[in-house]
Design goal:
This protein is an alpha+beta fold. It is built from two helices and three strands. It is elongated. The two termini are 25 Å apart.
Length: 78
């Protein structure tokens, strides 16, 4: 299975804006700006998206390892 994402940035660093989309179309054209990345503004940023990917991967891996040990968690929150 191939999963891809794209990002587009228009303009300068501080006055520009960008969007990020996933190939699966589950998320499409999520907006991000300098302010959402470096200031306390509402919106996503690349670090948040990476953190979400790492957290979901860890949760799945932990569930798999617990399953191998005969334990079946109802929920894992990372």
């Amino acid at each position: 299975m191939i999963r891809k994402a794209t990002a587009r940035w228009d303009g300068g660093l501080k006055d520009g804006k960008g969007v990020v989309s996933g190939h699966s179309s589950v998320f499409k054209n999520l907006a991000y700006t300098f302010d959402t990345r470096f200031e306390d503004k509402h919106g996503t940023n690349p670090e948040e998206l990476i953190a979400a990917a790492e957290a979901s991967c860890f949760s799945m891996a932990l569930s798999g390892e617990l399953g191998k040990a005969g334990l079946h968690p109802q929920s894992i929150e990372t």
